[in-house]
Specification:
Blueprint: H1 2-30, H2 55-61, E1 113-116, E2 133-142, E3 148-156, H3 162-170, E4 173-175, E5 177-179, E6 182-184, E7 186-196
Antiparallel strand pairs: 1-4, 2-3, 2-7, 5-6
Length: 200
């Protein structure tokens, strides 16, 4: 209904505006109507000459600025009583009648220390829900060269993860156990590897 009303009132209005513009243009062409006279154009002179200045008087009037005088040096102190004392505080050491053996402070013996621990890859064949954690408890030995061997799975929440956990431990590197300055086997090292699938 609204579009019909627009057509009924819009077509006569458009016709009236068109006829009015046509009559206005014909009156302008015949010369019956005159627009305002053009205003005088602004005159811009780009060839104006600059005035020359006399440089001889400028050089005569120039004066160099006077520099500030440097500050006077601090007064020298010749009074020896003004210097601080360098003796420090003297105190007597207490006498201890105890026989202590504090040693050298250096013990070369140490247990096996991990150097490189490569995390395992999440196995694609093991189905687990996102956010659920699976863990594998392993036991292994460290050789005098720092490599892992005799890897055994002690317990796991899902046996599907055992193989990938053991592969990860195979790539680990250790500083070997040192006893009396000699590298030795470190047996029965235990660790737990946790697998968790991040939610998407």
């Amino acid at each position: 209904m609204g579009s019909v009303t627009r057509v009924i009132f819009g077509l006569p209005g458009a016709a009236i505006v068109t006829v009015g513009l046509f009559l206005l243009m014909s009156a302008l062409i015949r010369g019956e109507l005159r627009l305002e006279e053009e205003r005088a154009a602004v005159k811009i002179d780009v060839t104006a000459q600059l005035q020359e200045t006399d440089l001889s008087n400028v050089n005569k009037e120039f004066k160099r600025p006077t520099l500030d005088a440097p500050p006077p040096p601090p007064p020298a102190v010749t009074d020896p009583s003004n210097r601080p004392a360098l003796d420090g505080v003297r105190a007597a050491l207490p006498q201890l009648d105890v026989n202590l053996n504090i040693g050298t402070g250096f013990n070369p013996d140490r247990d096996a220390q991990p150097l490189v621990r490569i995390p395992p890859q999440y196995p694609e064949r093991c189905q687990s829900r996102a956010g659920e954690r699976e863990s594998v408890f392993l036991e292994f030995d460290v050789t005098p060269e720092g490599t892992t061997t005799n890897i055994r799975v002690v317990d796991s929440t899902n046996s599907c993860f055992n193989r990938e956990a053991a592969r990860a431990v195979e790539r680990w590197k250790y500083q070997p156990k040192i006893v009396d300055n000699k590298a030795e086997w470190r047996r029965g090292v235990q660790t737990t590897i946790t697998f968790e699938l991040a939610p998407e």
